[in-house]
Amino acid sequence: MCGAGSAIPGLFGTEKHSDCDVLFCLEGADAPRRGPSDSKTEPESATSAEASAEATIAAAGATTAACAGPPAGALVGMPLPAHMLVLRLASERFCAQIERWNNGPVNVVTPAAESSSASAAARPQLRVLLGCEAEVLFARAAIGYAYTGVVAADGVKEALLVRRQAAYPQIKGCAAACDSLLLRMLPAACISDAPGGAERWGLVGKAAADADHASSSLAIEFMACWALLPDPAEEPTFAPVLAAANEALVRHFGDALAALNTPSLRQQLLQLPAAGVEALLGSEAFGTDSEDSVLLLLATWMKANHGQTDAATRERLCRLVRLVQLGGPYLAAVLPALAADYETGAAGSPCAWFPISVAEAAFIATLATISYGVHQLLSVGAKVYDTKSPWYGAATRPTCLSGAGRSFEWAISQQELLAALGELEPEEPFSKYGSFAGGSLCTRGFEWKPYVQATPSATSADLNLSCDMPAEFDVPGSRLGRSGKVFAVVGLDARLAVYSWSDGIRQDAFSSKFESKLLQFGAGWVLEHSNNSGWRSALPLAQPPEQVEAAGGGTGTAAVGLQAAGGSGGGGRDALVRWAAYLHAGRLTGTLTLLPAPHRVMRSRDCVN
Q1: Nearest to residue 464, comparing CAs of 454, 453, 472?
Q2: How far apart are CA 407 and CA 98, in angstroms?
Q3: Number of helical H runs and strand E runs in the chain
Q4: Could you give the CA distance from residue 395 to residue 369 in angstroms, rounded to a whole number?
Q5: Per-residue CA distances from 521 to 204, 329, 377, 479 (Å)
Q6: Which of 166-175, 327-336, 423-432 is predicted with the least confidence, judged by mean pLDDT?
Q7: N or C: which end of the chain has fewer CB within 10 A?
Q8: 519 occurs within a structural domain
Q9: Does a structural domain hold residue 527?
Q10: Is the separation of the CB atoms in 223 and 276 below 8 Å?
């Protein structure tokens, strides 16, 4: 910019050469309104746009809780000295207000403004309606764009609020500039493709950490601002930004396994609005280990947010689950129970959240498992059901498990072992469960926990893996809850390992695989403790120190270290010495590595959609 134009940005917010004032007024029933005669001199386009903008502001309501304050119709903030030439060129609304002022005096000053100086009242006063006092800052920034051509916003929320405030005065180009700014913010998120993150882009060390943190922060900020996003149906120009925001959200959560098993992501999932969950489930980039985990993810969110949804929202979200892709246990047990809950539960009750009939659930289970006659079955079913919906989608989601699988560490603290051992008689058995970062591990739509089983005097310990019906399905009145009798027989492709330590070096003390085809687990509250599988005597335990010394051997460095750390401590401490080889930094640790399932022939692959 050169010549006189270069001086315009410096005029914003100054008295220099100003010839009008912009007043910020709380809109409401008591706010001053133009009469029918006032709008006759205003361009038709401005009038219609004004109505649209006022409707937008009214619908938006208060921007934050801080919006409680002055009554409707009051002036808020300081008047903004402005320049009619700039505002005429930048805004049809301001242009129309200036024309009305020039055609005759219009009383736009509220009683709250009577204390304004005489000099300010003697020149045109242009009015901007706001939902609350907190919006003054963003309305000023929107007007500032008319002078500077720059959106004064440091983050997603600020850019969205400036964009919203630009709607009322119709600042030309401001909404598009805000959209461009938001799109420029989003590419940084592209380097984070959870769970691979910045490593996929060759970034290492601090650069990788900074890149992933920046991306995650951006996605979280978009989540927090979801209610501020314009509806692309009403503002089609915002669609590219919304698409980019959805992509950033999907990248942030990564896949169903990460969302369910990473405590921070799980908490953020629960705080997502329905539109955010819809973006995840509707994305072709959102991966999973199985469609069962996708349904569990939705159940997890629904249990926490059911009260904030209506029937239409629940229908829209549930329709995004690809039911014909569910595994056998979900098709046989979970889906029929959800259908029965929906048919028999009271409308709108938490247990009746998945809108499917028992008959359609049975039809889908048949469609997903038959080996021939798919086309014929579909042609008949299409007369009764919406077979074009995602429920019948034959395309599988991206798998989030590579050939090597994904490992999750579990641990039992030394204190937990000591407490169990100290309370028991020598031959009294005990079981101690390991915990993952989020407690249980969710995969294949069920909850899993490893546990060790032994007696205080045993020479070895058993290692087991338990499978449970997820607590997210345990809602009042549901057949999948604790009072229900639904159970499933489940398989898992995984490798369970326990670590031992020698001179600070870790090694696998035990490692073995499960295969899903063996269906080794039962899941259901009614099964109680029969829902496990594992290995007997998987972990050899050391002899008590006195037996070792009697045999002429040493105590061993691990046992010595354990004794030095806690002394003799009685029977519990003596029994704990047997576990010394597996204890490091006060914990017994291992991993459960989830392996990709063998290729499943999708018998509904001939589905039409």
Answers
A1: 453
A2: 67
A3: 23, 15
A4: 15
A5: 41, 11, 32, 20
A6: 423-432
A7: N
A8: yes
A9: yes
A10: yes
* Cβ 187 vs Cβ 193: under 8 Å: no
Kindly report the pTM of this predicted structure.
0.80
> Which of 288, 291, 313 has its CA nearest to residue 302?
313
Helix (H) or strand (E) holding 576: helix 571-577
CA–CA gap between residue 78 and residue 558 (Å, rounded)? 73
Contact 130/26 with Cβ under 8 angstroms? yes
Element (H, E) at 267: helix 263-271
Contact 342, 328 (CB under 8 A): no
What amino acid is encoded at 583 in this protein?
L
Q: What angle do CA 118, 120, 124 make, to 5 degrees?
A: 125
CB atoms within 10 A of CB 159: 26
Q: What is the dihedral of CA 74, 76, 81, 82, to 10 degrees?
A: -80
Domain contains 233:
no
Residues 93-116: b if buried by 16+ CB within 10 A, e if exposed:
bbbbbbebbeeeebebbbeebeee
Of 111, 145, 171, which marks where a domain is finished? 171
Count the Cβ atoms, other than its own, within 10 Å of residue 85.
14
In a domain, 255, yes or no: no
**Token representation of residue 609:** 């959609």
Residue 292: C-alpha distances to residues 38, 333, 339 (Å): 61, 12, 16
Say which CATH number the domain at 74 has: 3.30.710
Element (H or E) spanning 374, and its range?
Answer: helix 374-381
pLDDT at position 553 is: 52
471's CB contacts (< 8 A; 6+ apart) are 447
The answer to whether 81 and 116 are in contact (CB under 8 A) is no
CB atoms within 10 A of CB 413: 17
Query: Mind giving me the DSSP string for 198-228?
Result: GGGGT--HHHHHHHHHHHHHHHHHHHHTGGG
What is the number of structural domains in the chain? 2
Higher pLDDT, 193 or 10: 10
Phi and psi at residue 375, in whole multiples of 5°?
A: -60, -45
Neighbours of 326 (CB within 10 A): 23
Q: Where are the beta strands (DSSP E) in 314-472?
A: 406-413, 430-433, 441-443, 446-454, 460-468
Return the residue matching tokens 């007043």.
Answer: 23
Domain boundary among 130, 152, 171: 171
Q: What is the pLDDT of residues 339-375, one digit of tens each?
A: 999 999 888 899 999 999 999 999 999 999 998 888 8
